[in-house]
């Protein structure tokens, strides 16, 4: 599934001067092994910017991230609320 998300980069491959928020996937309750393909994902402002004209849930689905992870990243970047409809 991660192959259809070309804009995302793993944290060790990202070499940018802009702020980066790293998301670490969590295990499902009761799981004994990490989620398959669960590499850390780095989110930058530049990655999120093209999605500001979409609802948060749609952007999250297209990025393959949870809405909560995106909201936390936005707060780190100084964006108090998802920009769609503001």
Molecular structure report:
The protein is of the alpha+beta class and 86 residues long. Helices cover 26% and strands 12% of the residues. It contains three helices and three strands, in the order E-E-E-H-H-H. Strands 1-3-2 form a three-stranded antiparallel sheet. The protein is globular and about 40 Å long. It starts with 8 loop residues before the first strand and ends in a 10-residue tail after the last helix. 12% of the residues are buried. Mean pLDDT is 77; it is low at 1-16.
Note the topology.
Layout: E1 9-10, E2 20-23, E3 41-44, H1 45-48, H2 56-63, H3 67-76
Antiparallel strand pairs: 1-3, 2-3
Report a brief summary of the structure.
With 86 residues, the protein is an alpha+beta fold.
Envelope shape? globular
The secondary-structure element order is EEEHHH
Spatially, the strands of the biggest sheet line up as: 1-3-2
Beta-strand fraction estimate: 5-15%
Helix percentage range? 25-40%
- The radius of gyration over CA amounts to 13 Å
Structural class: alpha+beta
- Please report the number of helical segments: 3
Number of separate strands = 3
Please, what is the average pLDDT?
77
Low-confidence stretches at least 5 residues in length (pLDDT < 50)?
1-16
Give the biggest sheet: 3 strands, antiparallel
Main traits of this protein?
single chain; 86 residues; 3 helices; alpha+beta; globular
């Amino acid at each position: 599934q991660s192959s259809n998300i070309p804009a995302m980069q793993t944290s060790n491959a990202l070499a940018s001067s802009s702020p980066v928020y790293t998301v670490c996937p969590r295990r499902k309750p009761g799981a004994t092994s990490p989620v398959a393909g669960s590499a850390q994902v780095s989110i930058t402002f530049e990655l999120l910017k093209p999605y500001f004209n979409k609802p948060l849930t749609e952007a999250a689905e297209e990025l393959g991230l949870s809405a909560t992870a995106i909201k936390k990243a936005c707060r780190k970047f100084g964006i108090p609320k998802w920009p769609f409809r503001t």
